[in-house]
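quick q for whoever's on today - can somebody do inverse folding on this one?? i tried earlier but teh output was garbage lol. tokens:
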């Protein structure tokens, strides 16, 4: 028997899951060390409880799909609204080269996943799920495409499979990035560890000194938002979602038909750059970040609440094989392609650690990897400029394009 939570109960349950996740992350060193998000930690516990209840008594629950979808669209709109094309000049040719490197890896990642799935006698789409959809895309993209693959391509349990793969990638991305960069730094003698005198964690920095992207290097710095810019930002999100809904209906059946979340992301890009680039309207990045991250947390909690882990029983073995191969592929690519293409210097080693982070997990994992390296060996402003620009927006757009092309012309 299945119970469906309405929007109110879904929101209450999601908040409980987030509070549980926060408690677990604060109490368990492993979760904190590898930057496991609170909704993932709490949501997996909820999913395991749901599995036990289903196996023992036959009951299951599903959350409000409308509310869940809305939060997902807000998250992707926040990615688009964070894309300031004027910052491309700051990234320079290094950003372009890194984007090409990342785009090439997305193709490799999907080739490995779909190839192994075919060899193991599975639907190639399962390999796509255990490829860039979940590993490069993360939990948000896993949830978005999981729903599409379940409803439009008949892949039963795609959402559960996606969440499991994304969680694995998040952990592994945080494990391999730092050690790989340290190996490269030591092998090529690119830098030496900082002394205690070099590091001053108590130093104070003004907003003008920090700049817009440097806060990733100084995570303890607090940035504030106000009610006025929060309301304005909510209006921007509403405009993005309205654009996404309109374009989804308008493009249906056309050659340019895309999932709704891609239109939400694209709408954010267009709106951000028209308002800021042409009309000179100030955009409040801090408010966008707050709402985007809140929406992602609530969406993930809702998605994990409705996970049906019993649907993964037959795929457990093959999934482990595919994800193990993906881990090896990521490490080799970062060491022999990313590091070398980006210059075989200290910045390139930090970038390789960052690529492992969002190539297997998410941008926060990439930033955490780089912080672990720069805390020991010194700053890398180039890496902290390029990786957030790439990981927070461009990689999702490239990934969505590659996946869409595969679904249209390959599968």
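ok took a stab at it. sequence:
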């Amino acid at each position: 028997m299945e119970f469906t939570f309405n929007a109110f109960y879904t929101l209450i349950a999601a908040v409980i899951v987030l509070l549980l996740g926060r408690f677990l992350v604060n109490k368990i060193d492993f979760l904190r060390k590898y930057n496991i998000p609170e909704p993932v930690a709490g949501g997996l516990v909820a999913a395991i409880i749901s599995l036990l209840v289903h196996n023992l008594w036959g009951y299951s629950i599903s959350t409000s799909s409308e509310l869940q979808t809305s939060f997902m669209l807000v998250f992707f709109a926040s990615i688009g609204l964070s894309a300031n094309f004027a910052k491309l000049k700051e990234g320079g040719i290094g950003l372009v080269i890194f984007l090409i490197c990342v785009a090439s890896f997305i193709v490799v990642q999907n080739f490995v996943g779909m190839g192994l799935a075919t060899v193991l006698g599975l639907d190639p789409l399962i390999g796509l799920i255990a490829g860039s959809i979940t590993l490069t895309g993360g939990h948000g993209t896993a949830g978005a495409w999981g729903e599409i693959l379940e409803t439009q391509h008949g892949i039963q349990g795609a959402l559960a499979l996606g969440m499991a793969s994304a969680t694995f990638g998040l952990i592994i991305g945080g494990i391999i990035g730092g050690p790989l960069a340290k190996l490269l730094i030591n092998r090529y003698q690119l830098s030496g560890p900082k002394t205690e005198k070099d590091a001053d964690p108590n130093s104070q920095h003004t907003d003008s000194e920090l700049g817009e992207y440097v806060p990733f290097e100084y995570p303890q710095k607090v940035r504030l938002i106000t009610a006025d810019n929060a309301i304005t930002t909510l209006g921007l999100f509403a405009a993005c979602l309205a654009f996404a809904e309109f374009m989804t209906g308008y493009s249906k059946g056309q050659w340019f038909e895309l999932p709704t979340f891609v239109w939400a992301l694209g709408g954010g890009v267009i709106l951000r750059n028209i308002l800021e680039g042409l009309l000179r309207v100030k955009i409040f990045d801090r408010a966008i970040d707050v709402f985007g991250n809140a929406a992602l947390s609530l969406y993930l909690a809702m998605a994990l609440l409705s996970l049906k882990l019993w649907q993964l029983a037959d795929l457990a073995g093959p999934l482990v094989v595919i994800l193990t191969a993906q881990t090896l592929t990521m490490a080799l690519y970062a060491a022999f392609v990313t590091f070398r293409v980006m210059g075989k210097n200290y910045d390139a080693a930090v970038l390789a650690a960052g690529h492992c982070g969002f190539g297997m997990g998410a941008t926060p994992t990439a930033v955490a990897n780089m912080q672990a390296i720069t805390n020991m060996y010194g700053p890398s402003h180039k890496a902290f400029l390029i990786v957030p620009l790439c990981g927070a927006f461009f990689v999702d757009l490239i990934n969505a394009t590659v996946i869409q092309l595969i679904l249209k012309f390959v599968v």
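fwiw Residues 2-409 form one domain. also Residues 199-216 have pLDDT under 50 and may be disordered. so keep that in mind when u check it
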